[in-house]
Design a protein that fits this description.
about 300 residues, alpha+beta, 6-stranded mixed sheet
Length: about 300
């Protein structure tokens, strides 16, 4: 009885095996390969089933709505001509991978002699990029009791790096209150944005600061920068303000005295500078004894 059941089950499954053997099938050992920049990447695409002796192999890169050929008509295309090759008939190897190579690659196989003549598989390539030296901004001097923010940023690395700050070569904790050694300070470190924020700087915060950016493939440092914390001289500031006020007062008094003495009066015009008006043709002016009294006589004879 058991033997009959097995035989019956085999007869039922036989059409399925036949159907499967007539379809081209693909398999990949790694659908999401991760490789470091400038290294070698292998995109696995393996034919596990086909009746076609020489199936057509194509590789494409999918970038949003844009599709470009990597391997077509039995040869590499475009940027991949000199740095890519097929391995084991269908797998793709890319040499000297760059960050521009990351993306989705599609392996397509056409097998005309199979019932289902086509198959495809998508492989997502991720390229890790080592960070470069981050850009740091550190204030040169800050008065005691004031706030201060130090910046550290790196835009090349992938995955995005995390940040650590150092003072005089010593790692700073994420929060000054988390360590008894930094209880007299008041800072916090944001590992994602790279900022080091002091709510109120103290004399002990003076020192040489540097930052390190780190991701899965490496790290990089910015150059050390000095930050000086100085005491705010209130007496000096008040004295300076008083000197300025005194100078302004003396200047004002001097101007007022000059006005009173008439130093700013315009003496260009007075009674002696009166200009005799021009004489019209044929008229002679005669000055009388009374100053300012003029009369004229005509020079025409009637």
């Amino acid at each position: 009885m058991a033997l009959r059941r097995r035989a019956l089950l085999l007869l039922l499954l036989l059409p399925m095996f036949r159907y499967r053997s007539l379809a081209v099938e693909l398999f990949s050992t790694d659908l999401n390969p991760v490789v470091q920049e400038f290294y070698r990447a292998e995109l696995s695409c393996i034919i596990t089933s086909t009746k076609t002796v020489n199936p057509r192999i194509e590789w494409k890169k999918i970038a949003g709505k844009d599709t470009s050929y990597v391997y077509f008509d039995h040869k590499m295309q475009g940027d991949w001509v000199d740095r890519a090759e097929l391995h084991g008939r269908t797998s793709l190897i890319i040499h000297n991978v760059t960050r521009a190579d990351k993306g989705i690659y599609r392996c397509e196989v056409a097998a005309p002699e199979d019932t289902h003549i086509g198959a495809e598989i998508n492989i997502n390539l991720t390229v890790h990029v080592k960070p470069v030296a981050p850009k740091c901004r550190v204030p040169q001097s800050v008065p005691v009791g004031k706030s201060a923010t130090l910046h550290c940023q790196e835009k090349e690395g992938f995955p995005e790096p995390t940040y650590k700050w150092y003072r005089n070569g010593e790692t700073l904790p994420l929060d000054s209150k988390a360590s008894s050694k930094f209880q007299n300070s008041s800072f916090t470190v944001n590992t994602k944005t790279g900022t080091l924020v002091f709510s109120e700087v103290q004399k002990g915060d003076t020192g040489r600061y540097t930052c390190r950016a780190t991701n899965a493939v490496g790290d990089a440092w910015c150059e050390e920068m000095e930050m000086e914390v100085y005491d705010l001289n209130i007496a000096g500031i008040v004295g300076g303000v008083m000197v300025v006020i005194a100078v302004l007062l003396l200047t004002t008094v001097g101007i007022c005295c000059a006005y009173r003495k008439g130093l700013f009066v315009n003496n260009k015009q007075n009674g002696n500078s009166y200009k005799t008006p021009a004489k019209p043709d044929g008229v002679n002016y005669i000055r009388t004894n009374e100053e300012g009294d003029f009369r004229h006589k005509s020079s025409f004879v009637i």
